[in-house]
Fold Formate/nitrite transporter-domain-containing protein.
Amino acid sequence: MSKPTSTSDHLDANDAAMLLLSTGISKAYQRLDYMIVRNFIGGALVSVGGLVTLLVKGGCDGLSESNPAVVQLLLGLVFPVGLVMSTLTGGELSTGNVLFLSIALLQRKIPLWRSVYCFTVSFFANLAGSLFYLVIAHYGHILSADPYLTGTIVFANDKVLVPSASTVFVRAIGCNWLICVGVYTAFLSRTVVSRVISIWIPIFTFVAVGFENSVANMFLVPIGMINGAPISVGLFIWKSLILSTLGNMVGGGIFVGLVYWYLYVFPTDIAKDEIDMGTETILPITEPSSRAPITQIVSRTVPASESLESLNRRDRKFHHSVSHDANSISHTEGTKSGANSDSEEKVE
């Protein structure tokens, strides 16, 4: 493996992948109340972007007829504001957690049941946050008058009634593929500006194209239903939640999580050097000094700075020190043995 090429403004792809692994482990083992609050806030903030999207969509009714492509580009520009705020302030989304949990699961750092548990909590906390912000938007009468009210109905119909079930599923795959690429590129970034741009580009793309995001649907479709869209609750759950969630899991978990795990995490020899300690695992790498042993994963955190190359250097340093100490001990014992033999000869 080549030496990491991290620079001052971005991380190396390998380091970013290891940071995704570390984050996935941390998210899986965080406290339940933290998990709920972070995902609740994430769902609410994404709904902010959805609200702005509906305002633009409803206000561009005439432009939608004459030049719909321009409207789609405008929607793509404004929707990412919620996701950017969520990412920068520590909010979580089930769509993004697919990437983190899949890498940690593939690397066998978390059990399957815990990944399912974390995703389930994340999903329903996102739903609660989205519906909470829907109440704010509805009783705040943000979209209660035309053309915005009619725009919410049309938007919900286009999401649920127009596309077939298979179309929704395929669009959801494409959506979370782009979202998780945005998450990965954000982890490559070291500055706020570069992180915002890294997130904005793929989110802009999936909105402009018209892909399906399960968390966004938690706000965009129900508010249209409240305003009169002829969509049943069962149809909303089936097409906007279940199908889009399954597609999001495939797009984020396979086309991003599996791919980047295979490219950057799987090739390392970290897994084979681990010692299973029951529910904990540690790396058997120590420095021959007075400092504490270097452990990763024991606290379920893998720092991004711990690249494979640095681990190999420490491993070689350790083995070199052990070999040196062993040779010194052998030489000392040989000297003592020779001295004892001379003493015995003199006595005789």
About this structure: Residues 143 and 161 are 21 Å apart (CA to CA). The two ends are 62 Å apart (CA to CA). The first helix runs from residue 13 to 28. The beta strands are 275-277, 280-282.
